[in-house]
Model the fold of this input.
Amino acid sequence: MIPAPIITRAVTLALEEDLSGGDITTSALVAEGSRAVGRALAKSRLVACGAEVFARVFYELDPGIRVERKVADGAEVAPGTVLWEVEGATRTILAGERTALNFVQRMSGVATLTRRFVEAVPPGSKLRVTDTRKTTPGLRAFERYAVRTGGGTNHRDDLGSAILIKDNHIEAAGGITPALASARRFAPHTSKLEIEVESLAALDEALAAGADIVMLDNFEPEALSEAVRRASGRALIEVSGGVGLERVAELARAGVDVVSVGALTHSAPAADISLDIERLS
Done:
């Protein structure tokens, strides 16, 4: 789950953004004592995600409002399915509607796209589908939770959680071998060292220098298969860079260990979800 303080901080900021000037339309049209029930509906097939965030939006506006989860996060649902229900003051529901939907449409979209990638992995394969740090600023915890909800796994959470040496690091350090040597001196004995390479020659140098994980950047199929062969038993192989659904099965068959897909978070289309309100009084 997402830690409660992170949810509250993001929701508070989003509500301030949308309600800093009040809700003049609702104030003009809806009586103070009016009550309603709002039902969040899936308008297309999707993987539901974000129940806690949806509820927190309305709880921040009115701690006494009723919010009910109708499906579990991770459930794949058909169009027309009621995902979540909120009951209380009509003014509160209308004030929180767009903020709540913005969060869950984004999260359900990420979860749905991730599920498609995970389903493309052949049964019995060791290939893991993981995300990257290409996330929406301020919403990383939400999007990473959505990836897990869709069946994927997370890469490093932040720059302090793992050593990943990329091309600019290699340039700054003076090459692959000195970069790995410096990283090994700095890292605790419990840490693995990952490095990005762009050729088979670079792969050989990284393996000789003791890399634990090698990220292959935009390798052609033939070179990729050879890289997997050379690294077998010596290092894990991760593939990154423009990996679409159509390549997942191919990478699995080639023996790749991990595929990291930035598109899971930076390009997932928002899920189609609406909030339909029924007046109660």
